[in-house]
């Protein structure tokens, strides 16, 4: 309160009345120099002082005292010390009301629920497409192309505001896009070879890669609890891999490469995007477009249009017209779940985001096992639970 008063430009004014309060009683001690006392003979001068009607008058202290003139009786006076606030310097006070806090929590909860639901739907349709059309490079390309087209239409129709970017923005985004492209393709390759649940169990080991890369390549130090939390992550992933009934080396290596690539993506994002005023939705849209440009020539070189045409005809012959809707669904939901995740990151801390990402993997693993009737041994389930628990402990240790 004192700091607030001292920051204002104010004018001192003194009022005197003949109220009979206890003598020498101070109701409020002022924190600045005492105001001059005006006696009865000067009372009329008070009303001639310049007081503006649009400025509030604040009482700073009240004091009682007595005085006597020669040959006159003693009078009891009350001095009211006041100051006039200057409204030309408004205070910038941001107070978050309880209703606003509750609304923010509800908003974050909706983001999380939408993020998890979209991710589950994407993984289901993505696995269906890869079972009938085992061309992960084209499937990855279509996901990025669909998202890029959706955002271009949104910008053109003014549904979303187009971001203001420059050459420096795209320059800093390029290494992020390279890492994102590698991680996206590697994860798709993994899911084309093994069960969705197994891919996500291995991908739950991403925190271990993050700590190891940051420690040995960037020289960062971490407290002991962070390193201890890596033990259940690594142990749980290893136990699941050893007991996986449909273990595939290519699928396992794809998930591991995806972990490493996404760690570098996060590092490049933190280094390159500081100070950039692009929203989470538009940032991911730009990332998708640049990744699409990087991925397309490699997809053509790795698989090629001839293989795609033959595989497409075979898939349509086996599945029917529904296959086209599967491809469209996996492409649309891939973009939507990533877009919502980046929008969530705008609203929450990285720690909360990592916890949400852990819970997302649980929902994907459980739903994929139920939908695809994936056989799971008790030891395999135990390994998955240990790995996910380690990821949660890692999130707490990083706090």
From TrEMBL:
Spans through the membrane: 108-125, 137-156, 222-243, 280-299, 319-337
InterPro entries per the UniProt record, alphabetical: EmrE-like, Sugar_P_trans_dom, Tpt_PEP_transl, TPT_transporter
GO biological process, one term: transmembrane transport
Domain (Sugar phosphate transporter): residue spans on this chain: 107-395
Keyword Cell membrane assigned: no
Cellular component, GO annotation: chloroplast membrane; Golgi apparatus
Cellular location(s): Plastid, Chloroplast membrane
Record key words, sorted: Chloroplast, Membrane, Plastid, Transit peptide, Transmembrane, Transmembrane helix, Transport
Keyword flag Membrane: yes
Record membrane topology: Multi-pass membrane protein
MF terms in GO: antiporter activity; phosphoglycerate transmembrane transporter activity; triose-phosphate transmembrane transporter activity
PANTHER family in the record: SOLUTE CARRIER FAMILY 35
Stated name of the protein: Glucose-6-phosphate/phosphate translocator 2, chloroplast, putative
Organism lineage string: Eukaryota, Viridiplantae, Streptophyta, Embryophyta, Tracheophyta
